[in-house]
Structure prediction request, 113 residues.
Amino acid sequence: MGFSMACDEGLAERLRQVFSGRPEIEEKKMFGGIAFMLSGHMCVGINDTMLMARVGPDQYDAAMTRPHAREMDFTGRSMKGFVYVAPEGISEDEDLKSWTDLCENYIRSLPPK
Prediction:
């Protein structure tokens, strides 16, 4: 059982490409997977094959209506402002980018850590 069990390496590579050349993005191991941090805040992450998208409370309801999104219940209870996106919802690069853009817009509204 290797690292790949906890994290979809292909998805990690795609996210690295989305964020490439961006010094303010930091990659961290978190939640048993990988998180991409923006200005010290978790922006998106990978848990198993799921994208963890931090969309924020204001965008949460709209995000939940998008295809292949569901509540993130990593801790056994819903984490408001976070959604899981199934692989089918991010199979196309433009879909993945639309999620990362949504998350980045939210993070930019927060005070830097």
Remarks:
- Residues 93-108 form the longest helix (16 residues).
- The first strand starts at residue 25 and ends at 30.
- The CA atoms of residues 5 and 48 lie 6 Å apart.
